[in-house]
Amino acid sequence: MTAQQATATRLFLSPPAVGHDEHALVADALASGWVTPLGPHVDAFEAELAATCGVGHVAALSSGTAAIHLALHLLGVGPGDDVLVSTLTFIATANPVTYLGARPVFVDSERASWNLDPDLLAHALHHRARHGRPPKALVVVDLFGQCADYDQIVPLCAEHGVAVVEDAAEALGATHRGRPAGSFGTYGVLSFNGNKIITTGGGGALLGDDAGAIARARWLGSQAREPAAHYEHREVGFNYRLSNVSAALGRGQLRTLHARVERRHAVNARYRSALAELPGVAFAPVAPWGRPNHWLTCLTVDPAAFGADREDVRLHLAAHGVEARPAWKPLHRQPVFAGCEVVGGDVADEVFATGLCLPSGPALTDADVDLVADLVTSTPRRRTTGTHR
Ligand SMILES: *Cc1c(COP(=O)(O)O)cnc(C)c1O
């Protein structure tokens, strides 16, 4: 293999996959002349998302981050407030807390799902209630497309009067006891970034059952413009709405949601069977309470048993044109959040140290998956196997 071949990435982690429906719908949006702002495809996309996720109302927005920001804004989060946040996640889960002048308090994962640990949550809520420092809200993540333990998390937060924002950015199409991801909190959040389950080329959505609140989110996301012929503003708003063309793309993507999720399941199953016998390699846990969408297949590499660590595997894949990524670096380890409070942290640290996400997009062929699995298997082992750690 030449150096050039070695560096050209051929298989990406989760690239966008665009089908036929999208071409027709985007062409319709363009032909109608209704490119932006808003428009009929936005209204239809919102209604279709609400039906898919089993919620009353949806505001289509420019990003998942914007949706989290508006959710926390609607909940009245502001300067001096504490907001509990899953620590094992993408930075966008916590950034909006700081946009509002509030403080994130990071909570570790449990081993059953790598999602927010309900026992640590209970401990933190009781402790804070005793000391008169209740958090204003919880932002809980459905990591890699698997729902958190809502049987425990939702009642705990209700008992303490803490609002739940479900960050289901990675979890469209997943379920918890048959109920769709995005429907568990006061607000749910989806992302339509290019690497997610469906894409609008960049976009997101805020989900909820309170019609007035979601209408207010749409209004806040349109610069909080008052109903007047001229531009009149009584509140500070945001430019957060989705365009009609983007919504048309999203509608086309949503039509094939089922097939997209089933293909990610098949990819996950194929990795599992190909690597089942490999010592030191295990897969992200699937908790009994739901069905993930397997957005990303993530495995863990135990260096002592495998003879190489997750960076060795990642670099071996990269040298053969395959993109893999370490599991999220926990937010309590991010320099930008240095000094923030953290509850626990060991489980997330361990997942970061050992976890590697493999190419998982719906366009991967079986041969692609087999190639990645073969590369994982053929990762060169260190001579000091099992003795140096
Ligand atoms: C992608 C993602 C987001 C942010 O979504 P954007 O649409 O990129 O702003 C938020 N939370 C999680 C967990 C994500 O994976």
Short account of what is shown:
The protein is an alpha/beta fold and 389 residues long.
List the helices and strands and how they pair.
Blueprint: H1 3-7, H2 20-31, H3 40-53, E1 57-61, H4 64-74, E2 82-86, H5 95-99, E3 103-107, H6 118-130, E4 137-141, H7 150-159, E5 163-167, E6 175-176, E7 179-180, E8 187-191, E9 204-208, H8 211-220, H9 244-255, H10 257-275, E10 281-283, E11 290-291, E12 297-301, H11 303-306, H12 310-319, E13 325-326, E14 342-343, H13 346-354, E15 355-358, H14 366-377
Parallel strand pairs: 2-3, 2-4, 3-14, 4-5, 5-8
Antiparallel strand pairs: 1-9, 6-7, 6-11, 8-9, 10-12, 12-15, 13-15
The chain binds pyridoxal-5'-phosphate.
Q: Which ligands accompany this protein?
A: pyridoxal-5'-phosphate
pLDDT below 50 for ≥5 consecutive residues: which ranges?
1-5
What percent strand? Answer: 5-15%
Described by the principal axes of the CA atoms, the overall outline is globular
Distance between the termini: 33 Å
Class by helix and strand content?
Answer: alpha/beta
How are helices and strands ordered from N to C? HHHEHEHEHEHEEEEEHHHEEEHHEEHEH
Helical proportion, percent range: 25-40%
* Alpha-carbon Rg, integer: 22 Å
Enumerate the strands of the largest sheet in spatial order, edge to edge or round the barrel: 1-9-8-5-4-2-3-14
> How many E strands?
15
Number of helices: 14
